[in-house]
Amino acid sequence: MTATATPAIQLRGLEKAYGELQVLRGVDLDVAPGSIVALLGSNGAGKTTVIRILATLLTADAGTATVNGFDLATQPAQVRESFSLTGQFAAVDEILSGRENLVLVAKLRHLAAPGAIADDLLARFSLTDAGGRKVSTYSGGMRRRLDIAMSLIGDPPVIFLDEPTTGLDPQARLEVWDTVKELAGQGTTVLLTTQYLDEAEQLADRIAILHEGRIIADGTLAELKRLLPPAEVEYVEKQPTLEQIFLSIVGADRKESR
Ligand SMILES: Nc1ncnc2c1ncn2[C@@H]1O[C@H](COP(=O)(O)OP(=O)(O)OP(=O)(O)O)[C@@H](O)[C@H]1O
Ligand SMILES: [Mg+2]
Predict the structure, then answer these.
(1) Whose CA is nearest to atom 28 of ligand 1?
(2) Which residues have C-beta within 8 Å of that of residue 218, sequence separation ≥ 6?
(3) Of 6, 117, 125, 252, which one has the greatest count of Cβ atoms within 10 A?
(4) Residue whose CA is closest, atom 25 of ligand 1?
(5) Is the CB of 141 within 6 Å of ligand 1?
């Protein structure tokens, strides 16, 4: 599909152990430029570990990875200039207004016209009306949008979102999904982690399932669905849900490793 484009993110044989605990056992993944890939896995599968390695916060024990064409091991400075990372908990300052938070980050990055950058991002994230209010008065969804907006200052080509909607209510999740879709629509490459199957289903162009240290399935939702035959229910063909696919793959894998 995007076989001709150089991947925006590429992982090959990535391994990582914490002491005795071997978390990553050879992770391979390609993320095409401008696409959204969801890294799906249970608690403790190693999703955050993958993100922290790509963000140069952690060193892999083996394997290679590139971000925006730059090699993690030999070009870490260029890698750091290529991405922004939004962690699970919002990094916004409660006492400042939304606009002040954005201006502050733009100033810290030594960008010209921080006020204009802030106003542009407030508009893009539907926060213009709330821009002058203290963040302490924002809803969870608004904070999350502001957090993502802050991470976009300086236009990084790649964005890592570690569980972008954990703890948000359904409406706020929808808002964040829209934001992420819009980002990818404008050419930003998004690698996000999630434990929510519906999030992966709604948001991602491709879904990679991380289980027992490896990517055990990787494809579009339609491709993953083809892994399971449709179930026949009272003459109505019922497509398997991502949840059924996930449990089927993970369950099968569990049995094998016993
Ligand atoms: N610094 C560390 N030292 C020791 N063990 C760690 C460390 N960081 C993570 N682990 C362990 O490695 C495994 C993978 O952790 P990781 O945070 O990458 O998982 P995750 O897929 O992000 O999980 P979650 O869905 O809960 O966020 C877990 O068993 C975790 O306890
Ligand atoms: Mg995690």
Answers:
(1) 44
(2) 29, 206, 207, 208, 209
(3) 125
(4) 43
(5) no
30 or 86, greater pLDDT: 30
Tell me if 40 is assigned to some domain. yes
Cβ(21)–Cβ(15) under 8 Å? no
Q: Domain containing 52: what range?
A: 9-231
Q: pTM of the full predicted structure?
A: 0.84
Asked if the structure places residue 225 within a domain, the reply is yes
Closest to 155 measured CA to CA, from 120, 127, 129, 197: 120
Segment holding 180, helix H or strand E: helix 170-185
Q: Is there a domain that residue 240 lies in?
A: no
Total domain count, the chain: 1
Contact 166 CB / ligand 1 (< 6 Å): no
pLDDT at 36 over 70: yes
- Span 69-103, pLDDT tens digits: 999 999 999 999 899 988 766 678 889 999 999 99
Q: For residues 13 and 21, give the distance between their C-alpha atoms in angstroms, rounded to a whole number.
A: 17
Q: Which ligand is nearest to the CA of 46?
A: 1
**DSSP reduced 3-state for 17:** strand
Looking up residue 63, the CATH number of its domain turns out to be 3.40.50.300
Grade residue 230 by pLDDT with cuts at 50, 70 and 90: low
pLDDT at 1 over 80: no
pLDDT in tens, 125-171: 889 999 999 999 998 888 888 988 898 888 899 999 999 888 777 77
> What does the pLDDT read at residue 232?
54
Q: Are 91 and 129 in contact (CB under 8 A)?
A: no
Q: What is the 48 CA–ligand 1 centroid distance (Å)?
A: 7
Q: Is position 74 within any domain?
A: yes
What residues does 9 pair with on adjacent strands?
Answer: 31, 67
